[in-house]
Amino acid sequence: MAAETYLAGDLGGTKTFLCIYREIEGQLRKEHGQRYRSADWRDLESMLRHFLDQVPADLPQPVSSCIAVAGPVHQGKAKLTNLPWQMSQTSLSDATGVRRLELVNDFAVLIHGLPHLNDQQQVVIQRGRDRSTPAPAGTDNGPVAILGAGTGLGMARGLPAAGGWIAMPSEGGHREFAPRTEAEWELAQWLKQDLGLQRLSIERIVSGTGLGHVMNWLLHREAGIQHGLRAHAHAWRTITADQPGYRDLPSITGKAAADGDLLATEALQLWLGAYGSVAGDLALQELCVGGLWIGGGTAQKNLDGLRSNHFLEPLRSKGRFRSLIEGMTIRAVIDPEAGLFSAACRARDLAESGGTLA
Question: Which domains does the chain have, with CATH numbers?
């Protein structure tokens, strides 16, 4: 009998990636996939039907599906921010014939994949307690958490359960930013004034966009010096990403730091320190003895920084709870398709649990 297949999707306002996975020797393997431009389709149902019609005849139709959605999901329903699509698990299941189909927030879905990532999909940045020694009561298979700086700052937490993992989305990136140092305090005050804000959320600084704000502040602070990134910073502030002349200041800052630019290096180190402190706060909040992961689009680009004391020392510096943090294993997700893989893991869990979601 052919192995069962699972339909995984990563749905965004710009593009969508759909794939068929199959389990081979205990590992999920991608068998067939296709990318779509989301705006070319009137709804997700028609896109899914088209995709399933293109699946090679030698692959069985999927028995379950998980679609990761770039937006909130509530009671099996979701709406994309940038497209007028209304989606529900029931209508998608009816349209595709896939009996078990689930919509999950595209960051929270990572919780389902974390325990299954291999060494090509993640790297360890802090080795926690030696697993060869007996575990303290209640800590094995404990809670996990992930945060990831991209355009914003995503967070999610997970609890082990009989049918896999319970994934809990979070808007923790919108908590108030708490400066730890004089530099962070000055940055926060300047940024609130610059952006016209009453309060400053964490992701204004701890995100890919935030690295641009940090660099912009340092250029403002050092207004009397000539610097090669000043023109890039001006373009980043005044030109939108879809217009000619736009400059990706966060990326340019990272490259300049790698080339030895002192001001860019200061920006990156300040950003890493704020990021590490937030990661440590999340580790304490969730008591994620099962592991903490750093994801998002900036993780792979900043592996050296995540391994450095600029990130790890603020993460560990939590007073009486330092030893708890030091005992946690912390990993960085480096697979750009981790979300899709995680959706496949969730689809497999759904198939194994039986029944229907409708």
Answer: 5-111+337-353 (3.30.420.40), 122-334 (3.40.367.20)
